[in-house]
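Sample intake sheet
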Amino acid sequence: MPDKLIFDGSASEPRDLAEVIGQSVGAASMCWEEVMNARVFQSERASLIAQEVIDWIEINYEPKADNESNLVSHARRELERIGEESFIIERYLSVVRPFAACGHSGGTAAVMASVLERLLRYEPLSELTDDPAEWLDVSRISDMPWWQNVRDSRAMSHDGGKTYWTTHEAEAAGGSDAAPIHHSVRSEGNDTEAVAVKGSASSLTSQIH
């Protein structure tokens, strides 16, 4: 019996899944032989055909999982391409699937992805304010008045949140003394600024819907 019954390198070798199925069914239909006036099924030949089909599918065919969206398929393919292990890929896909299920268009998906990225990085979606509830007094671990913002842990203040600098900017500048100083939005006695903060957050929501 030849090593290959279907994929023997001939010109008739199947080129796609439809041809694989067609030729394998045809080959399997001939897995019978006459032995002493009786038809005997050639199980060894049938097993070889089945294994050839399995080998071809594993090498050449990447089926899309049932109901798997284009985004999930893209994520799976790219993660496999960089060599991620299957259980790590599944962890990523457990996040991608609900996002894809929202049915966003290209525009709203981009907006939502941008918002999600900021949230996953623990970054605020609007300007920091001088509301005392936003600032945690951590002076006890320093030799000077010191507050840390609860909405953005990178933001540090020496005046209760009226002004602040950020740790990533301080690192880039070579120290907190050289970091740029930011002014918080006033939370009391200034309705204009309060409305601006609320508006910046709601505008993101309106773009997603």
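Comment: The chain has a mean pLDDT of 80. The radius of gyration is 32 Å.
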